[in-house]
Amino acid sequence: MPKNWSAENNVTEVAEDVFFVQGPAVNWTILKQGKEFTLIDTGYPGNWPLLQSSMNFLGLAMENAAGVLLTHGHSDHIGNAARISAMGIPVFASHAELPNIRREVLEQVTVKDLGSRILRPRVGAWAAHAIRSGGLSDVAVPGVAAMTQDILDGLPGSPRVVATGGHTSGHVSFFVPSAKAVVTGDALITGHAVSPVRGPQLLPAVFHHRPAETLASVEVLRQLGAETILPGHGPVVSVLDGTIELVSEGRYSPFV
């Protein structure tokens, strides 16, 4: 576990029984109901001790997970999903995202896509962390199943699925009505190792499968009227009057 990371300092209760966990590079969300819970995203493979620590901090045990929901199929979000699935816990994603999560296709930025940008300090540091955290390992989740709203209604937190494609074909976000919060995955982030700014923003276009659709998905998120953003990367952010204003569309050096 990273020396400076602790559950005490990185688990935030944003509303009753709704917990946001900020990892060193990627986040996950826990919707608690007694001893049962819904886990949204699972971090890199190397985040397994942190994931366990966040559970323990909340008095939870992984075997009591009612289900795991995945925003999309990138390694930093599904890194522990196969391990959890092997415990007999159901793992769900949108139907359109299943091929990416099963690794029948791969909609994910590669070193080749980054090109010479990998030599820039922020990008190189991010890539090195991703590799150390298991980002290049086999994270396919053969047992992932397609979610429906009926399935989600029966899980702790009863999150509402929101289609926010673009980052990947089947990327989704999850609106938690009781908290007026939205778990945005990578459709909208608030910080990232490659970014020089903090606040609601998009990743640079090279990180998205269909960049134009990602920008359109921000408008979908705006329509929710959420008051709290629980991003895939960066800190939790409160949104005044439910209005999301982007501080960046990801057009900064070396991504311009």
TrEMBL record:
One Pfam match = Lactamase_B
CDD domains assigned: yflN-like_MBL-fold
Q: Which residues form the Metallo-beta-lactamase domain?
A: 25-233
* Signal peptide range: none
The lineage is: Bacteria, Bacillati, Actinomycetota, Actinomycetes, Micrococcales
Gene3D superfamilies per UniProt = Ribonuclease Z/Hydroxyacylglutathione hydrolase-like
**What is this protein called in UniProt?**
MBL fold metallo-hydrolase
Q: Tell me the domain of life.
A: Bacteria
Q: Which InterPro entries match?
A: Metallo-B-lactamas, NDM-1-like, RibonucZ/Hydroxyglut_hydro
Q: Name the SMART domains for this protein.
A: Lactamase_B (SM00849)
